[in-house]
Amino acid sequence: MSPSPHRNKIDPFEPLPAVGEPPDSRWAVPYLAQKSGLWTVHVRRPLTRRQLDAGLVDTLSASTLDALRTATTRQDDIAERLATRPYAAPTWAREK
User: Fold this and answer.
1) Rounded distance, CA 81 to CA 75, Å?
2) Which of 19, 22, 34, 82 registers the highest number of CB atoms within 10 A of its CB?
C-alpha cells in the first residue's frame, strides 16, 4: 500500500511568528469544527492546576463567533482576576 499523497499537508500546530514576540492572546485562532459545526478555540499554553481550579477551561465552543468571543472575554476576565489575586480561593472552595 502506498502512502497517502495528502499526508503531512496540514501542520497540526499553529506556527509561531518568524520574527518578534509570540502573540499576546491566550487563545489560538478560532475554527469551525467540521464534526460538531461549532466555533471552537483552544488556549495557546496548558493551564495550571490553579487556573483549572479557578474555573478556566482550555477549550471553548459556541454556535456563533460572537458567542465564542463573549466566552473568551469571560475567561480572560477570570484569568486576570486570578493573576491579580494570587492567593484567592478557587471557585469550588467558596461558600455560596
Assistant:
1) 10
2) 82
